[in-house]
Amino acid sequence: MGHGFGQLYKLRGIITYRLSPFELKAFSGLFSHGIPNTLRRIREEILYVVPPLAIGYVVYDQVEKEHMRLMRKNPADYENDQ
């Protein structure tokens, strides 16, 4: 292959690409592209995530309330105890 962009070379069938640390901008576009992209992705997926979670919470809450109601003792069963 030879040397060129980023010291491109071939070693035993493996192509390796390298960039100088001075060429790399790890956080470029974080605020201008990253935050809006994150908000857009959340807005697109919220309708797929929230309804099942809400349904699951409602079902769990109702089952717990019913379980607590069934576990209570009936005071009428113990009126004649002395």
TrEMBL record:
> Could you state one GO biological process linked to this protein?
mitochondrial electron transport, ubiquinol to cytochrome c
InterPro entries the record matches: Cyt_bc1_su8, Cyt_bc1_su8_sf
Q: Is Transcription found in the keyword set?
A: no
GO CC terms for this protein? mitochondrial inner membrane; respiratory chain complex III
Question: Any idea which UniProt keywords this protein has?
Answer: Electron transport, Membrane, Mitochondrion, Mitochondrion inner membrane, Respiratory chain, Transmembrane, Transmembrane helix, Transport
Tell me how this protein sits in the membrane: Single-pass membrane protein
Q: Where in the cell is it found?
A: Mitochondrion inner membrane
Subunit relationships: Component of the ubiquinol-cytochrome c oxidoreductase (cytochrome b-c1 complex, complex III, CIII), a multisubunit enzyme composed of 11 subunits. The complex is composed of 3 respiratory subunits cytochrome b, cytochrome c1 and Rieske protein UQCRFS1, 2 core protein subunits UQCRC1/QCR1 and UQCRC2/QCR2, and 6 low-molecular weight protein subunits UQCRH/QCR6, UQCRB/QCR7, UQCRQ/QCR8, UQCR10/QCR9, UQCR11/QCR10 and subunit 9, the cleavage product of Rieske protein UQCRFS1.
Spell out the family assignment given in the record's similarity comment. Answer: Belongs to the UQCRQ/QCR8 family.
PANTHER family in UniProt? CYTOCHROME B-C1 COMPLEX SUBUNIT 8 (PTHR12119:SF2), UBIQUINOL-CYTOCHROME C REDUCTASE COMPLEX UBIQUINONE-BINDING PROTEIN QP-C (PTHR12119)
Instruction: State the function annotated in the UniProt record.
Output: Component of the ubiquinol-cytochrome c oxidoreductase, a multisubunit transmembrane complex that is part of the mitochondrial electron transport chain which drives oxidative phosphorylation. The complex plays an important role in the uptake of multiple carbon sources present in different host niches.
Protein name as annotated = Cytochrome b-c1 complex subunit 8
Name the species this protein comes from: Zophobas morio
